Amino acid sequence: LTVTYNNLYTNLFDFYPLYIGAIMLLMLIWSALYIFLAVYVERVHPGAFGVARPWNYLFQRKNNKKIKPVPQNGLKSVPLKMFNEKWIESKPSSGVSGVSIQNLTKTFGDFKAVSNLSLDFYENEVCCLLGHNGAGKTTTTFMLVGMLEPTSGCIFVNDLDNKTNLEAVRKNIGFCPQSDILYDELTVREHLKLVAKIRQMPRTEIERSTDRILALINLRKDAQTLAKNLSGGMKRRLSIGMSLVGDPKILIFDEPTSGIGTTNPKHRREIWDVIRILKHDKENRRTIVFTTHYLDEADVLADRIAIMTAGELQAHGTPDFLKQQTDLEYRLFMDKDAGCQEEIVRTHIQQYIPNVIFDRESVSELRYGILRGQEENVQQLISSLDKAAHLQIKNYGIATITTEDVFLQLVEEAHYDKPDTIANGLQSHPQKKDLITKVFGQHEKVKGFSLRLIQYYALLIKRLIISRRQYITTLGFLLLPLLIEILTVAVLPTPTQIQASLLQNDHVKGASVKLIPSIYNQPQQQTVVVYGNNNGSNNLNNLLTYLSNNQNVNVDQISSDTVMSYVQQQYTQTYAVFIYKYQIAQSLYNNLSTPSLTFDAFFSSVNYHTAAVTLGVSMTQLFQFYAGSTAKQIITTNMPLITTSTTSSSSADLLNKLLCFDALPMVLFGFLNSILVMLFTIAEL
């Protein structure tokens, strides 16, 4: 039955008052209800990412008023540790806080990723969260944008609490995650438009905003390029551009140059240029926060630097303020000649700067640290070095300290206070790097195809070591296929034997049915309705002959009414026997000018197998038409596998059915193999 708007709420059978229109309407109602429940559950229980709302948030009054960022729930500021006090710069008198973090803590089980973090990010400034891998930078950014719910503490974005005003907060935030979230089959322009529509920007502003962002991130020439064809640097710029859509006032970039590396400084510089442009746009009063573990990146871009270690704030202030807190003021670099001796050089320097600090020595370089208050002595030292040819020094240079020196001193202080806090993720001391350089720098690097062979060889050795340690699992992989094959061949009967045995079963024999129209001749002879638009058609004559002579059924041939209208008339006249009389029908549409066969097949959904019977009659028609012979026919037999409780148990019944299709060995092997693979993988982890 073809469904149209005219028959959505009509039914052929009065005793079965179910309409297609009613079903579709109920589906729409249930779909709307399920969508509502899904959104509600997602907001109340967001899972790993997101901030949970109270169960009755639908009945709470919405409040987007800005409030003063003060600690809530009786939280009090946690005093900084003694070694951190000098590293925290006081709030600027003219600074307006765009983001305020107070006593923020996030724990995962027993692990504390962020611990009592209190920090302010100011408008018209770029603040950098600096720290090693695992310091808690990404976790902090996730809490800022509402992807993670804090264990305790408060976050205020433009004076809005992100716990109670998360939607309003997210409208003010543009976030660039550490990993690019791009669609391979969308172009650069389509990505920006997609985000614009998600942010519900007006149609009139989408194109203008897209063009402006494309120019800003320098991707105007690549606007129609698919994301999968972009380089790594282009993808990062596109991710930054997506965070700029909607002109948010708070921009958070989680390691914007991650994945680019230091081998291609051009791409890093392009991203730096984008951040610089945003930084100098004072009219929009943006608050820009980015995380990094590159010290030079923080030194170049940041107005303020917040250094984190093991989830705790170690320092916060402008780069000049942080450098003023270090013990050193200058670094002295020297390029050694072949006969240069460090002891002689140090003795010469100590004549002018007695308390000079030896930093490190490498194969070709010497480094020293000069404490503060030695400006005059430094000038005298420089004059003497120009005349000291006996020191065997090629070149020398002096520079003020960098953010790297600040970071190293903080790490050293944190190490003395809590040795375990920097065990995960910190780089070794510079002297250790020099030792590595001395040991491995003497050997020539392997490149090209030889490097690939060595890598494959190393992986093979690793696999052999793991296999030797997990010898039981290895033996299982080797012996399991052999054991299953022996079991299948020697113990279990073959599928042919089982099928032959089942065919001799009386229950199976009694259930065997040929799927032809005459199977519905009880309690009365079956009638097949046939409609033909041309009585002289050979196809129609062949079908009538096949049904009348070979199938032993009655045929109601019609030419004026359609099949459905005719069946409905018969139903109203012979209601009592209608359900048993008509099961299948066909409408033939033939054109005598060209040899063709076109027909529609109908079946009743009341009895079993009607779809298969109709399909068998249709396939026979096609077979006879293309074979050119009315003697041809296709007969389908249904032979179900039937067992009883007296002959076998339910488990034996299932086993027989699996064996009949030769599925048991494959199922057994796949099940055992998956268990071994899982155990093997867990063992490696």
Automatic annotation (TrEMBL):
<dbReference type="GO" id="GO:0140359">
    <property type="term" value="F:ABC-type transporter activity"/>
</dbReference>
<keyword id="KW-0067">ATP-binding</keyword>
<protein>
    <recommendedName>
        <fullName>ABC transporter domain-containing protein</fullName>
    </recommendedName>
</protein>
<dbReference type="InterPro" id="IPR026082">
    <property type="entry name" value="ABCA"/>
</dbReference>
<keyword id="KW-0547">Nucleotide-binding</keyword>
<keyword id="KW-0812">Transmembrane</keyword>
<dbReference type="InterPro" id="IPR017871">
    <property type="entry name" value="ABC_transporter-like_CS"/>
</dbReference>
<dbReference type="InterPro" id="IPR003439">
    <property type="entry name" value="ABC_transporter-like_ATP-bd"/>
</dbReference>
<dbReference type="GO" id="GO:0005319">
    <property type="term" value="F:lipid transporter activity"/>
</dbReference>
<feature type="transmembrane region" description="Helical">
    <location>
        <begin position="663"/>
        <end position="683"/>
    </location>
</feature>
<dbReference type="GO" id="GO:0016020">
    <property type="term" value="C:membrane"/>
</dbReference>
<dbReference type="Pfam" id="PF00005">
    <property type="entry name" value="ABC_tran"/>
</dbReference>
<feature type="transmembrane region" description="Helical">
    <location>
        <begin position="471"/>
        <end position="492"/>
    </location>
</feature>
<keyword id="KW-1133">Transmembrane helix</keyword>
<feature type="domain" description="ABC transporter">
    <location>
        <begin position="99"/>
        <end position="335"/>
    </location>
</feature>
<dbReference type="GO" id="GO:0016887">
    <property type="term" value="F:ATP hydrolysis activity"/>
</dbReference>
<dbReference type="InterPro" id="IPR027417">
    <property type="entry name" value="P-loop_NTPase"/>
</dbReference>
<feature type="transmembrane region" description="Helical">
    <location>
        <begin position="16"/>
        <end position="41"/>
    </location>
</feature>
<keyword id="KW-0472">Membrane</keyword>
<dbReference type="InterPro" id="IPR003593">
    <property type="entry name" value="AAA+_ATPase"/>
</dbReference>
<dbReference type="GO" id="GO:0005524">
    <property type="term" value="F:ATP binding"/>
</dbReference>
